[in-house]
Amino acid sequence: MIASLTGTVQSTGEGQCVLEVGGVGYLVACSRKTLDRLTAREGMQRLLVEARFAAETGLTLYGFLDAAEREAFRALNEVKNVAAKTALAVLSTLSPEQLARVIAAKDRKALSAAKGVGPTTANRIIDEPAMQKWAVGRATPEEGGEATLAAPLPAQGVEADAVSALSNLGLKRPEAERAVARAKALLGEGAELNALITLALRESAR
């Protein structure tokens, strides 16, 4: 069973990428957040992989840049009638940390905002005991029970430059700070200014 792949990204498409490993191109389904992080980087990439077989589609590889996203994907897949495609849709909208807070707070509206996730599916995910168990220790509901995202810390260094660039492009500073904070979370430490600005612009448009 394939556990991970390391190679170069040859192309990306809607919900998937082609990762070339040793001259072989693997088609890997990914969340939008993972695809954004892949396209913002250069060189060799390592994806954690989950292989799933379905009668209608055959074998499909699902890729994740970190273990937290893979664990969230596995937890979602344990919910009855929640397919892998739906799990990726959720993770395209919410990071694992955000998902845990949404579930802990039982914020059905926030969960149903994910593409292809209606109220029925959102209720099924939130009411699933296994999902509630998964969320324990990963998140604590905000005061009042709402899973609102924490305000970003004041931008410094490269982040401050990115916020300034977005403000010069017409974004209000609070909006620019939130977009840069989301982009920084996706790219991780050491993100370069151009990559940070590019991804923050994408995030601000969503």
How do the helices and strands line up, and which of them pair or pack?
Elements (H helix, E strand, L loop, with lengths): L3 E10 L2 E6 L2 E6 L2 H8 L5 E10 L3 E7 L2 H11 L6 H10 L2 H10 L2 H5 L6 H9 L1 H7 L22 H11 L4 H15 L5 H12 L2
Helix pairs in contact: 2-3, 4-7, 8-9, 8-10, 9-10
Protein name: Holliday junction branch migration complex subunit RuvA
Family: Belongs to the RuvA family.
GO cellular component, one term: cytoplasm
Describe this structure in words.
- InterPro entries: DNA_helicase_Holl-junc_RuvA_I, NA-bd_OB-fold, RuvA, RuvA_2-like, RuvA_C, RuvA_C_sf.
- One of its GO terms (molecular function) is four-way junction DNA binding.
- The protein has helices at 32-39, 67-77, 84-93, 96-105, 108-112, 119-127, 129-135, 158-168, 173-187, 193-204, and strands at 4-13, 16-21, 24-29, 45-54, 58-64.
- It folds into three domains: 4-64, Nucleic acid-binding proteins (OB fold (Dihydrolipoamide Acetyltransferase, E2P)), CATH 2.40.50.140; 67-135, DNA polymerase, domain 1 (Orthogonal Bundle); 158-204, Helicase, Ruva Protein, domain 3.
- The chain has a five-stranded mixed barrel with strand order 1-2-3-5-4.
- It is built from ten helices and five strands.
- Helix 4 packs across helix 7 (129-135).
- Strand 4 (45-54) and strand 5 (58-64) form a beta hairpin.
Task: List the main descriptive attributes of the protein structure presented here.
3 domains; DNA polymerase, domain 1; 206 residues; alpha+beta
